[in-house]
Design brief:
The protein is α+β, with helices and mostly antiparallel strands. The protein contains three helices and two strands. Bound molecules: zinc ion (ZN).
Length: 128
Amino acid sequence: MPPSILDGRALATTYEYDDAGRLVRSVQEPAWTDRDRALMLALVYYRNTRCPNCGGDPAECGPDSRGKWEVPPPRRCYRTDRLALAQESSKADRPEALSWTVQRRGVANGADSQSEPRAGGRRLSAGR
Ligand SMILES: [Zn+2]
């Protein structure tokens, strides 16, 4: 979909009538503007010039960068952790049919904006 449409641009339609007032034809303006095409070309260019592995600047991924990167310790999301533990511990039949939620302790189900049918910003599988 063209970016300008996503931004709310409505497509204008021009109606043409003959001398008797009958509709002869209608012409809708093109959905893709020059700016939309330029934006898409820029996006393609950007994607094509990124490292295919990490999506970063390829100049930072090459041999000159060997030894210049490190991986900090992972951060544990305890909401996701608790959900994963519950799913691993569940002995329910057909676990794929279960919908899981995570909520803060002491908060009634659905009474808190923290209650979400997901954890860690991504939907977790109900399976194990
Ligand atoms: Zn890379």
